[in-house]
Amino acid sequence: MFRSKLKTLALAISGIVLAASLIFYPKESFEGSIRGLNLWWEIVFPSLLPFFIVSEMLIGFGVVKFIGVLLEPFMRPLFKVPGVGGFVWAMGMASGNPAGAKFTARMRQEGHITRIEAERLVSFTNSSNPLFIFGAVAVGFFHNTQLGILLAAAHYLGNVCVGIMMRFYGKESPDKAKNAKKLKIRAALSALHQTRLKDNRPIGKLLGDAVTSSIQTLLMVGGFIILFSVINKLLYHLHITAALAKFVEMIFSVFNFPEMLSIPFISGLFEITLGSDLTSRVDEALLLQKAIITSFILAFGGFSVQAQVASILAQTDIRFRPFFIARIFQGIFAGLLTLLLWNPIYVRFQGHNQPAGALPVFGDGIWTKDFYHKMLETGPLITICSLSIYILILFIKLKESNIKKS
């Protein structure tokens, strides 16, 4: 009882402090809000929307069930999750945070996985997408595409390490082990057909539901991005970030990391884009040190992403705590893998240890940079068109609902 009252008091005080900070720092709050809105408007919305819509349609068509039967012999022994986890994993890597949580929650709602399996699955299927790692972080912040290969390798291998670790989490039902049989095409095709028959929505209805569901999720994601962008800005001006950085400096001193990395690290714990950008600007640190910190930030995901995941998981019985613990472990794994892969991936292929400002001129680097800048240019247009379609669909649904009532 006392613990519950203490939590209520802490939440109330935090809310009051946040409201007061918004009043005393209106300019800084506005700047943080605009920064978060631009990130969502230009990158997050247009990059995630297609994946969300396509995944919803694949679920309705039964393709996910088909993939689940095919991947059962691989996913069950390795990660102790059903074969549909392979679909969630692939879509999570391709589209980025918080897609893994959305698809895991959907699998749980559809009854494809148990709660324990869902908590295992969501722990390693949330990651940054390749466009963000290569386009925003490697090219945009570090101006070094080769570093993106290292960051991506450490990031996705860290996902695998977390998945293997989480296979030992919870107890598996005795009847689950026997499902990991050899690959059966006929059974997969049968599951595909039966799932499509069960979901008897017309294609137009299925597409409309996919669009509305995806945009609703992305609107929620945008709200969290803006909120935490403002919070990050306010924490800096309230000198809370600097106070927390003092504690981090003591930990960094043990590993001979420059103390200037402490504030970017704290900022990255709240929002990965700002943290990665600030880390790349620390001239006093070695590139390897900045890469390790950036890997941890990308793997941890930031409290902004974790709040998005918590909101999605709250719609199911999936607990958030295992996911949060997994984020910490993935940050550690990613940092260690960056250190271990530095020589074989970065130094070996780079030839020499280039400064952070060097930009490779081979084709992949130019293509990644151009694609990222094109996304910044066309992203707002895609967002406006998508929101217009969303409003139109809602209007049609509302009109049909009123006709039925009358």
UniProtKB/TrEMBL annotation:
Per UniProt, the keywords (alphabetical) are: Membrane, Transmembrane, Transmembrane helix
Q: What InterPro entries does the database record attribute to this sequence?
A: Gate_dom, Spore_IM_YlbJ
Q: Where are the transmembrane segments?
A: 48-71, 121-142, 148-169, 206-228, 261-279, 291-312, 324-342, 378-396
Domain of life, source organism: Bacteria
In Pfam terms, one family for this protein is Gate
Residue ranges occupied by any Nucleoside transporter/FeoB GTPase Gate domain in the UniProt entry: 44-140, 218-314
Q: What is this protein called?
A: Sporulation integral membrane protein YlbJ
Please name the source species.
Answer: Neobacillus rhizophilus
